Amino acid sequence: MNSFKISRQNTPGKLSAIALGSNIGDSYKILTAAIETLSATPGIKLQAQSSWYRTKPVGPPQPDYLNGCAILQVEMSPDLLLETLLATEAKFGRVRQERWGARSLDLDLLLYDDFIIDTPQLQIPHPRMVTRAFVLVPLDEIAPHWVEPTSGTKIKNLVKEVDCADVVLFSNQ
Question: Catalytic pick from 103, 128, 132, 140?
């Protein structure tokens, strides 16, 4: 897929990393359509997209997930980006019933430039991203040199600290 070296020079707006996941319905079609929807949103430009990975769920018993990550160039605040991600989830039938339950679409805001934000509505970097192989493996594919700002550690080094056995490259063949 698309790999790139993060450069903050000559880049209008901010770079943001998001995680995408689905385990209800045709996850591949949902995730692909979600990327297309976000790419067509004013103020968002897709910079890179990882491959898709089949992963084991976290939480109650449920089907395996299809997960990936994307890098977006955004010309909106972190709060507005979060609102946009939540609206996109709703468009694809996301209903929040139980924590870590099955879902048609899950969009998580992982990183927003090198910002550290901790409010009741938004935490950046995502508070659990550094412990989740299903986030770090696809993020490492497209942004290995991005530094997670709270630890000061590059993604390529964070992924070495988690068990990646249950993250398997997905083929839509």
Answer: 103
Residue 160 class from Cβ within 10 Å (0-12 exposed, 13-18 middle, 19+ buried)? exposed
CB 166 within 8 A of CB 55: yes
43: left (phi over 0), alpha (psi -120 to 50) or beta: left
Name the token pair of 7.
């450069």
Structural contact between residues 42 and 74, judged by C-beta atoms closer than 8 angstroms: no
What does pTM read for this prediction?
0.91
Question: Each residue of 76-115: pLDDT tens digit?
Answer: 999 999 999 999 999 998 776 666 667 889 999 999 999 9
For residue 108, indicate whether it is catalytic: yes
79 is catalytic: no
Query: Does 132 participate in catalysis according to the annotation?
Result: no
Indicate which residue of 8, 54, 79, 94 is catalytic.
Answer: 94
Rounded Cα distance, 105 and 27, in Å: 8
Nearest-angstrom CA–CA distance, 83 and 164: 31
User: Of residues 99, 106, 128, 163, which has the active-site annotation?
Assistant: 106
